[in-house]
From TrEMBL, chains A, B:
Homodimer. Probably interacts with PlsY. It is found in: Cytoplasm. SUPFAM superfamilies: Isocitrate/Isopropylmalate dehydrogenase-like (SSF53659). Catalyzes the reversible formation of acyl-phosphate (acyl-PO(4)) from acyl-[acyl-carrier-protein] (acyl-ACP). This enzyme utilizes acyl-ACP as fatty acyl donor, but not acyl-CoA. It catalyses: a fatty acyl-[ACP] + phosphate = an acyl phosphate + holo-[ACP]. This is Phosphate acyltransferase. One of its GO terms (biological process) is fatty acid biosynthetic process. Pathway: Lipid metabolism; phospholipid metabolism. It holds the Pfam family FA_synthesis.
Length: 355, 355
């Protein structure tokens, strides 16, 4: 079906380009997280952003000179939330995002990590680094915490309106990601729908079902059929395929329901002396659960379909989240995932559809 | 904005028609729940279904003759999951659902409760009992457990593909439901979207936004703007408006995430002797949380837009859920909600659109 997960092997001489200026906590937390990753994962880091600010941040953390494995590429501008996502990368040609993605395109590094604007990153990655030849749209593929140890939800917001062919490509890309990066040998792929029967959903789901069913029959993906969001949460599939609107609503519902529960649990445990004592007795388990729901543990969301590895870190990432996003970028870059998509692109196109 | 919530006053001489044969636990649990409701809420019950089976169920529960306030209307057939939802009601003219909805149409009762097939109930209610004049589509409007004490999510599965006009009507109907049945004076209405900005979403969201914004400006509804699912879960709105596909995915994600959490918590508390002791200390709070997530507490989902009150109870309803669904039907029937929709239908139509 695809090359088996090389992502778990140790990469050699890998360099991750990091947008030092993107996100709510830039550059402080970004720089800190990048330095941690350089140290821990023995990975080279190319920090892109205002050199002066980056060095100042290091100084504030007691670091006088550039550590081993860390370089800086100066970029004088920063893309922020006020910028038009579609054009920000060319309106601000010397922004950390534009410079970083250009370095990625020019192979000055093996992957790019940014906690900046999702919309701007998507546009910039698509137009600077370009999509894999034959891929119609790049997609966001986060790992959602589910009963099965996590499920790849693709797409999650990059493409509000989709065609069946986009979803076919998302299914392949999600499946390769699950096998390469998560180490699941024959990832179970489901089409997110409002019922398990083949006839469920709108025209997008019905037409996509046929394409995925065919790909499953030809053993190119392990397609289980339609899957309801309830069953996705119970771990029924490794990859749930959907349009970016529905995926985004689902992702943020999981997040919101998690926060809702966490709030209720906090209240229950803080009620009185006995409940506070109870909290101590189950602290270990609760910490594990909290960790499971914490986006920072994963680090970021892969942008699949771009010709080189790009990881979108959460906008509110702290140093720990950035450290983990860099680890994820390292796995992505060494996994052979993009090559696998390239090798199999012929099966991801509708027959007769133009390039 | 609309008549204030009469739904909380005690109704007089109300009769609820109950589909005794619908759902996984029919007729046993349905009959039991209906008898409980008759007793507790002093409401008349008209049980529709196989008379022999209903009487046998009563006998098994030690009831020798029909209790006060309870009648039976015989129907020889049952619509089941194998029937085509769109045509089941006419293929099986003597089914409990068809007979029940015909009785409702003919004003032999004030509301109808069924735990049978959602699709069949929707088709049958639309074609037998009919929609309110001017309403384009009926919608499912469940109360989702959220940080704000619950949010009406409309639509949740009745209409996979929607127009902006449908969503405008859902917004009005959801708002009236929240004020009449939940007693929220000026319900906060949000359009479910993948960002708060006006420009977010696809063409459905953008066009609907304009309609809702206008209705808000004219003070017909209290429109807050776009709302993300994460914020819906935190209680940001009383009513979240969406198409039936997205709503269904969101609803089942909440359910699935709840089950995921419940499973994890169970494991944490069952780990060892100390954790089991901790469970005892917070049992009260945990029971409350469980209750909050339990669909049985609410009873069912209102079908809004039908000319008479219809409540869809969960397919796996037990007696307690049915009892609560009957209470909900009673509130719905005495609330003036349908009259309010009728009085304001002129504001829910696109100018120039035909009847």
């Amino acid at each position: 079906m695809c090359r088996s997960g090389g992502g778990l092997e140790k990469p050699i001489h890998m360099k991750i380009i990091v947008d030092a200026m993107g996100g709510d906590n830039a550059p402080g937390e970004i720089v800190k997280g990048a330095l941690q990753a350089a140290e821990e994962f023995k990975v080279d880091i190319l920090l892109v952003g205002c050199g002066e600010l980056i060095l100042k941040t290091m100084e504030e953390n007691g670091i006088k000179s550039l550590p081993k494995r860390v370089e800086i590429a100066h970029a004088s501008e920063v893309i922020d939330m006020e910028d038009n996502p579609a054009t920000a990368f060319k309106d601000k040609k010397d922004s950390s995002m534009t410079v970083g993605l250009t370095l990625l395109r020019d192979k000055k590094g093996d992957a790019f990590v940014s906690a900046g604007s999702t919309g701007a990153l998507l546009s910039a990655a698509t137009l600077i680094t370009k999509r894999i030849r034959g891929i119609r749209r790049a997609a966001m593929a986060p790992l959602v915490p589910t009963g099965g140890g996590g499920t790849i939800l693709i797409d999650c917001g990059a493409n509000v309106e989709c065609t069946p062919e986009y979803l076919l490509q998302f299914a392949f890309m999600g499946s390769y990601y699950a096998s390469h990066i998560l180490g699941r040998p024959e990832p179970r792929v489901g089409l997110l729908n409002i019922g398990a029967e083949e006839s469920k959903g709108g025209s997008l789901q019905k037409e996509t079902y046929e394409l995925l069913e065919k790909a499953g029959r030809e053993q190119r993906i392990n397609f289980l059929g339609n899957v309801e969001s309830r069953d996705v949460m119970m771990g029924a599939v490794d990859v749930a395929v959907t349009d970016g609107f529905t995926g985004n609503v689902m992702l943020k519902t999981v997040e919101g329901t998690g926060l809702f529960f966490a709030g209720k649990l906090k209240k229950i445990f803080k009620k009185n002396a006995l409940s506070k004592f109870a909290a101590l007795l189950v602290m270990g388990g609760m910490e594990e659960l909290k960790k499971m729901m914490d986006y920072r543990e994963i680090g970021g969301t892969a942008l699949l379909g771009i010709s080189r590895p790009v990881i979108k870190a959460h906008g509110s990432s702290d140093a720990y989240a950035i450290r983990n996003a860099i680890r994820q970028a390292q796995q992505f870059a060494s996994s052979g995932l993009i090559e696998d998509i390239q090798d199999n692109i012929g099966y991801m196109k509708l027959s007769g559809a133009g390039e």
